[in-house]
Amino acid sequence: ASANIGVVGLAVMGSNLARNLASREGNTVAVFNRSPERTRTLVDEHPEAGFIASESYDEFVASLQKPRTAVIMVQAGKGTDAVISELTARFEPGDIIVDGGNANFHDTIRREAEVRSHGLHFVGMGVSGGEEGALNGPSLMPGGTAESYETLGPILRTIAAKAPEDGEPCVTHVGTDGAGHFVKMVHNGIEYADMQLIAEAYDLIRQGTGKSPAEIADIFAAWNTGELESYLIEITAEVLRQVDAATGEPLVDVILDAAGAKGTGAWTVQNALDLGVPTSGIAEAVFARSLSSKAAQREASADLPGPAEAWTVAPEDADAFIEDVRRALYASKIIAYSQGFDEIISGAEQFGWNIDKGEIAKIWRAGCIIRARFLNRIAEAYADDPSLVALVVAPYFRDAIAGAQESWRRVVQIAAGAGIPTPAFSSSLAYYDGLRAKRLPAALIQGQRDFFGAHTYRRIDKDGVFHTLWSGDRTEIETEPSWH
Ligand code: 6PG
Fold first, then answer.
1. Pair 8, 30: CB distance under 8 Å
2. How far is ligand 1, taken at its centre, from the CA of residue 455, in Å?
3. Whose CB among 47, 179, 182, 456 lies 3.0–4.6 Å from 105's, allowing a Cys bridge?
4. 2 is in an annotated binding site
5. Residues 315-344: tens digit of each pLDDT
6. Does the Cβ of 151 fall within 6 Å of ligand 1?
7. What is the DSSP letter of 372?
8. Binding positions for NADP(+) (predicted)?
């Protein structure tokens, strides 16, 4: 027994995380993969890592110092359960099993209870940053017991990305059982929204100004020096600049316009629906990917009528239009994060987690896909007011939207007039206006519900629950709250 940590599952994420761990002072890393060829390849290619390789679970477990700590890096799903049961059968009380896959947090809650019943610790850990992050510094979102974090925390701090502002490692104990995977799920939901918003911005600029992808790449690169600075904006410029070797066309023009998804965005929305949290921007981003992949419907709809006149931006107005789009993007992005944090607040309440929102913003500042300069502003907003009801009302964001909202409205109007789909821009604006509204037509919905189902309503001018006798003399009675 000579390794202080082990990794099970040596596909690219697992291999890279194992190499990252091995490169840090004080770590000796045990590695195991179901098919031993992969283990051999990793060990042969990286002699500098000093891996302790095993070809069986028995050997792997024997190579770990106590308390044993093993990180599972296999595709989320059944494979994870299989590895957990192999480890649980061999581990002893106090040992720690970490699942670093993109697991559904409901599974993590179930697995944590099951593993804990054997006296072991189970940590569901969100790992963000893709292959590059796993190797050089991911953002890590571990859940599980606080006790397990005492052993795990110091190791994770060495491998996590470091925030550029203060060098703080991007890892924190998020909360118990499934909290880490829950927060990773919301991270991915925000990732979907951010990507969709960027895509809408690109589409508007391209269609409105006729600029080439390479020219738009320069615009994104310029945006990346300001308040929008983020990894996703940066890589957008790279993707737009890429030329296809086979055709000489911009790569973005030869990629099939059908977006894939592996499920975490949809989970964010499913859970938001269950929690009653309006994450509309994230939902539109998930649906936009679904729509893009509906080939038959899109083909059948291609000649449905659109606006009578083609839309273009006059050359002299192009710069102002592009600036409008930039502001609309920033405002919508604030909404996406505000909605995401709203889901974290509700999830924490529902599942009994004590999640520090400011800490979450901080550990997303580097390493992860949604890393962005403005996460510092989110961390500050929660530091100023830990019980902030919504990010949009924090003074900084309020001012940011105040400066952007006229542009945002113009862009949504133009897009609607031009027949260019901007589901994320539009729904974010509708959400913002919904929150702002002094009076919502929800009053009418309550009236309708009471009419057809005696669902009752409350009044603005007195306490109590009321029902109008719609099928009788239409007088109002005070009643009990309806149960259906
Ligand atoms: C990350 C990413 C990563 C992956 C997601 C989303 O944080 O490193 O979120 O986990 O990109 O699985 O992938 P899809 O777009 O395929 O759903």
1. no
2. 42
3. 182
4. no
5. 999 999 999 999 999 999 999 999 999 999
6. no
7. B
8. 9-14, 33-35, 74-76, 102
97 residue type, one letter: I
11 is in an annotated binding site: yes
CA-to-CA distance for 27 and 40, rounded, in angstroms? 20
- 368 C-beta closer than 6 A to ligand 1: yes
**145 CA distance to ligand 1 centroid (A)?**
26
**What's the pLDDT tens digit per position in 52-91?**
999 999 999 999 999 999 999 999 888 999 999 999 999 9
Rounded CA-CA distance 126/221 in Å is 29
Q: Is the dihedral of CA 144, 141, 129, 69 positive or negative?
A: negative
Report pLDDT digits (tens) over 396-447: 999 999 999 999 999 999 999 999 999 999 999 999 999 999 999 999 999 9
Structural contact between residues 168 and 134, judged by C-beta atoms closer than 8 angstroms: no
Cα–Cα distance measured from residue 344 to residue 323, given in angstroms and rounded to the nearest whole number? 32
Q: How far is the CA of 202 from the centre of ligand 1 (A)?
A: 21
> From the CB of 261, is ligand 1 less than 6 Å away?
yes
CA angle 22, 126, 133 (to 5 degrees): 50
Closest residue by CA, ligand 1 atom 12? 262
Nearest-5° Cα angle at 206, 205 to 208: 65
Cα 381 to ligand 1 centre (Å) = 27
User: Phi and psi dihedrals of 96, rounded to 5?
Assistant: -125, 125
DSSP 438-463: SS-THHHHHHHHHHHH---B--SSSS
Q: Which of 188, 196, 230 to mutate to test the pocket of ligand 1 (most atoms within 8 A of CB)?
A: 188
**d(CA 188, ligand 1 centre) in Å:** 6
What is the C-alpha separation between 39 and 307, in angstroms, rounded? 59
Catalytic residues: 184, 191
> Which residue bears the tokens 């995380």?
17
Q: Measured from the CA of 368, which atom of ligand 1 is nearest? A: 7
**Does 171 carry a binding-site annotation?**
no
Strands 69-72 and 52-53: unpaired
Nearest to 337 by CA among 291, 303, 376: 376
Q: pLDDT band at 483, cuts 50/70/90? A: low
Test site for ligand 1: of 12, 102, 195, most ligand atoms within 8 A of the Cβ: 102
d(CA 116, CA 118): 5
- For tokens 């904006």, the residue is 233
Rounded to 10 deg, the angle between the 231-241 and 179-209 helix axes is 40
In the numeric block, the tokens 């105040």 are attached to: 402
129 CB under 6 A from ligand 1? yes
With tokens 């850990």, the residue in question is 125
ipTM of the complex: 0.96
